Amino acid sequence: MKTAEDQLAKQRESYALEPKSVSKDTLDNAINAVGVAKANLDVVEKQLALTKAGAWIYDIQNQEKQYNALSKAFMASSALLAKYTIRAPVDGVVLAIKAAVGSYVSPQGAYGTYTEGFDPVIVMGGTQTYLEVRCYIDEILIHRLPPEAAMKATMLIRGTNISIPLEYLREQPYVSPKIELSNQRQERVDVRVLPLIFRFKKPDNVNLYPGQLVDVYVAEK
After folding, report:
1. DSSP state of 106
2. How far is 92 from 210, CA to CA, in rounded Å?
3. Domain regions of the chain by residue span
4. How much is the pLDDT for 116?
5. Is the pTM of this model over 0.70?
6. Strand, coil or helix: what is 74?
7. What is the helix (H) or strand (E) element at residue 207, kind and residue range?
8. What are the CA-CA distances from residue 166 to residues 12, 207, 217 (Å)?
9. How close are the terminal C-alpha atoms of the chain, in Å?
10. Architecture of 128-220 per CATH?
11. What is the C-alpha to C-alpha distance for residues 125 and 210, in angstroms, rounded to an integer?
12. Mean per-residue pLDDT, 167-190
């Protein structure tokens, strides 16, 4: 504003000395410039007063409502993300993932081309300190099984001469058709078997993984 007033004073002095030295249009523009500068000064002073006075209660309430709305939107998005996130109910080891990026997974699981059925999307297991062995006893040999307290079993790893003693856990007392095949040419598939479950501590110097096919010899102590 001070600059505009100085320019107007110079124009008026020149006009007072010689009216023809300053055009009417130039003088009017200088007068208008001072008016605009004064108006701008008033606006800035009012803004300064508002800043010193602090935020209005309406502005604070508006910001609080925006914060609440954004918080609820975040909670809704988090709930939607949790719906599509798979979480295990307990700690464990992921043994297999039957789905790939871009594949379709139905609520029944992932379709297996080998089994021609739906398999679990994710197969999990417990800690790898101990591994369990499921052994199928032919129905014609069930009567020869020793009592649980006297049962002794040894696991033989195929392709090696490694044998590992097994600890008896339990039996599944239901004789069912044999479905676990070892691809042997003379293997019978029309028999019924009794599942027995053993366990052993995983050796440090032997590579063993869940799902591996082994031979089990069961005898009396």
Report:
1. B
2. 13
3. 2-54, 93-123, 128-220
4. 77
5. no
6. helix
7. none
8. 114, 16, 10
9. 110
10. Beta Barrel (2.40)
11. 9
12. 77
Q: Comparing 16 with 114, which gets the higher pLDDT?
A: 16
Which sign does the torsion angle of CA 22, 28, 29, 33 carry?
Answer: positive
User: Which alpha helices (DSSP H) does the chain contain, by range?
Assistant: 2-17, 24-53, 57-83
101-139 per-position pLDDT tens digit: 888 788 888 887 776 788 888 888 877 788 899 999 999
Q: How many CB atoms lie within 10 A of CB 164?
A: 19
CA atoms 200, 204, 207, 209: torsion sign: positive
Beta strands in 115-181 (DSSP E): 117-119, 122-125, 130-138, 151-156, 163-171, 176-177
With beta carbons less than 8 A apart as the criterion, state whether 185 and 135 touch.
no
Structure tokens given for 43: 């606006």
Handedness of CA 3, 8, 11, 13 (dihedral sign): negative
- Residue 188: Cβ within 10 Å count: 9
Q: What are the two backbone dihedrals, phi and then psi, of residue 7, each rounded to the nearest 5 degrees?
A: -65, -40
